[in-house]
Prior knowledge:
By secondary structure, this protein is of the alpha+beta class. Helix content is 22%, strand content 20%.
Amino acid sequence: MIRVYLPAHLRHLAGVPAEVQLEVDSPVTQRSVLNALEARYPMLRGTIRDHVTQQRRPFVRFFACEEDLSHQSPDAALPVAVAHGTEPFFVVGAIAGG
């Protein structure tokens, strides 16, 4: 099971707690985790990734094992600790301003 933490606005939209657990087929990548998340919670489609391009939305970031994974390839393998469910995959709403 993959553990995914969602920001408050996405938790509210999906009606879920802070952490959700998903079955994800190997290889465990950003793409496979987000595909599983959107399949289980279709109301999240288009909120994390663009509908057409599947690119990460500008103010959404991904973290795991204290590392920013936002600019890595969506098909790069996630850390082993995430794949084994010992560490969560974080979807974070970025804040901008001046």
